[in-house]
């Protein structure tokens, strides 16, 4: 083995590590710049810096999404503010309790403003989130998947033990039978609800209207007549796609075609508008969500 | 016809010749005189029927029509021969002046009859023309056809054309809802619920089609005109049957309108036209209504003429305790009878220190003969200062035509408690306008400052959706397979005897393996062979052989049907083993190999016999 051949992987590893280090520094630098700009109430610069950090960061970050959403809220951009604050509360971003509380508070303030705008402009907005919505969101979390799956496997084991136990102590099978029932219920009910929730989220992903007001049309095309107007920040579900257009549905059932760039899916790994930091950026297509 | 016979057929002359025979001078003179007389008669007779055998006839399906009606005229030209062509009838100019002649259809038919040896023939040309009456009057229609040098005139048909609606006088009493007698099988009947109304007061107009028999093709060709009215459609009732005079009529409600007069004076509802089978028409009578102006006495200044009817007004807020800057909705609801969509609610009171936006107006019409409903005005209001906000009563003034007086409906005073710091300053309208889209009203939590962004490298979760789905589907599958396997084992698994045989086989295999391992060394070989043979013998002998000495066992094998040769070999082998075990004779490895082969052979034979 020559000196050259032995040094090559070392150099490669050094370059790789340096690249990652430099990248990490750029994210941190942009984040700190954004924070400093926010302290100066320079919300445009803050939003731009946070967008830069978000574009460089390859994964979700609750604090980054929260700061970005707060910056947009201070700029009055209710659609993007709602979008990023909602991402900050997503369990996949691993928010801390502090971030979660602050994001929910800001989300409520943005929501009130969006409702006010919708009332004055006549635009349509989704109904406020209810306890049921939170419950449905919690059911889609991975811990429910683990619990249901482990309950199922435990049921198999318990059933085998139960039948062996029946041969030894036929009169003392009550406890094992009760355990079997509990495991079967945990397996079927939370498991079924989790499957339904994940399936609904996959088939009709949630999205947020980014622009201040978006005309929902009867078909995909600017020549189609306007059915109604969507308020920025409204939460919709994406039912279908056509080149450049998305068919969205409000929780109440109203459906209409909107330009694809005007809505952003919440399950996307990369935040909408992060590519290039443009406020009019096209939302990226998210990968299939985890269970 | 007679003339044609004289001129075209030899038959009359032949008859005369047969009657009078050869002519003398006197007879010739008579014949000449008769011929002249016949000729004169033929000339003097009306030419309509005896011109060279050509006849012309005109027929009409109706003798009375309304302007615009379509009448079908049929022109017939016939001749009692099948030879030659028939002339085409020519219409007089007077027909074209009074009627619009449509597309005519013509056809020619020929017929030959032979009755009792008499052969008759005829040719007929039939021309059918639709005529649309254009002028009022009585018209006689006839036509002529050329026949050689003369013209044959047809009979004449008289058609009376009457006026449609322009000259119809308005109904004397339009409030009569149904007719008392009927002269036609189908007609229109119009009515209103009143013949005098105030400006803005509802007048209900009805138009019904009365049919004595079911007409498949009846349509309202022209709707009545409602000039000077605002009209609103109201629901139509179902078709029903009623007696008009002594005849049953099916009544099809055609139009129901709520009319709101817009100007005083005499307003006329125009006549409408019914088309029957695309040919006949019937007209309704116009209705003249006397529209009264709203009384000046008691009329408030700026009163809207659309505020006629009977109304109530109420006001409510969606919350009565709010914070400064927190929006609430103030809703005024007007309910009642009248043209509510054009109702003028009046000026809304402006509240100090409250920002309000243009109202969202919604109207719900009631379904019925009387137009009305509810109309809501929802104001979004944002109080800017804390304190008690008093929303004053709002007055709605309207004219009640039933009482012929003006009335006022009022809301009650509403108080909204605006909490928070009474000295807090909320932006003015100008500031608010400048700040729209830039600042969110509610206080926002600040951004979070950190030295670095926490990173959790994205990991692929082990429990992906696919794995979870497979696992969830796998659990019931495992349970079902386990239960099915248990059931199959119980159903098809071994019994005690089979398990006993399996134990014996396993022990035999064990002893054979032990013997094979010991065949070279000789240590334990004979013991294993002896035990193997003993086991096989016991297996053949059954449970009763257990514990018997060897000689008794061999006798038992004899009773069990084991061949003598096999018994002897068994006994011999057992004795060899005994000698080797308890004596000092050991023939070496070769002998042990032979002994093993013999023992295995005996074992196979005995096992076969036992099976």
Question: Would you mind describing this structure in some detail?
Answer:
Chain A is 57% helix and 12% strand. With 291 residues, chain A is of the alpha+beta class. Chain A folds into three domains: 3-124, Serine Threonine Protein Phosphatase 5, Tetratricopeptide repeat, CATH 1.25.40; 136-201; 206-277, SH3 Domains (SH3 type barrels), CATH 2.30.30. In chain A, the strands form two sheets. A five-stranded antiparallel beta sheet of chain A has the order 6-5-4-1-7. In chain A, strand 2 (213-217) and strand 3 (226-231) form a beta hairpin. The longest helix of chain A is centred in the first third of the chain and has 37 residues, at 3-39. The radius of gyration of chain A is 24 Å and the shape is globular. The two termini of chain A are 48 Å apart. Residues 274-291 of chain A have low confidence and may be disordered. Chain B has eleven helices and 31 strands. In chain B, the strands form nine sheets. In chain B, strands 1, 3, 4, 5 and 6 form a five-stranded antiparallel beta sheet that branches. In chain B, helix 8 packs parallel to helix 11 (589-610). Classes of the chains: A alpha+beta (291), B alpha+beta (611). At the A-B interface, helix 1, helix 3, helix 5, helix 7 and helix 8 of A face helix 6 of B.
How would you concisely characterize the structure shown here?
The complex is a heterodimer of chains A (291) and B (611). Chain A has helices spanning 3-39, 43-56, 62-75, 78-88, 97-121, 131-139, 142-168, 174-203, and strands spanning 206-209, 213-217, 226-231, 235-242, 245-249, 255-259, 263-265.
- Taking the alpha carbons of the first and last residues of chain A, their distance comes to 48 Å
What's the shape of chain B? Answer: elongated
Show the largest interface.
A-B, 65 and 45 residues
| Domains of chain A (count) | 3
| CATH structural class of the largest domain in chain B | Mainly Beta
Q: What quaternary form is this?
A: heterodimer
Radius of gyration of chain A: 24 Å
Helical stretch count of chain B? 11
- CATH-derived topology of the largest domain in chain B: Immunoglobulin-like
Give the termini separation of chain B.
Answer: 130 Å
Characterize the main sheet of chain B: 5 strands, antiparallel
Radius of gyration of chain B: 61 Å
CATH architecture verdict of the largest domain in chain A? Alpha Horseshoe
* Overall spatial form of chain A: globular
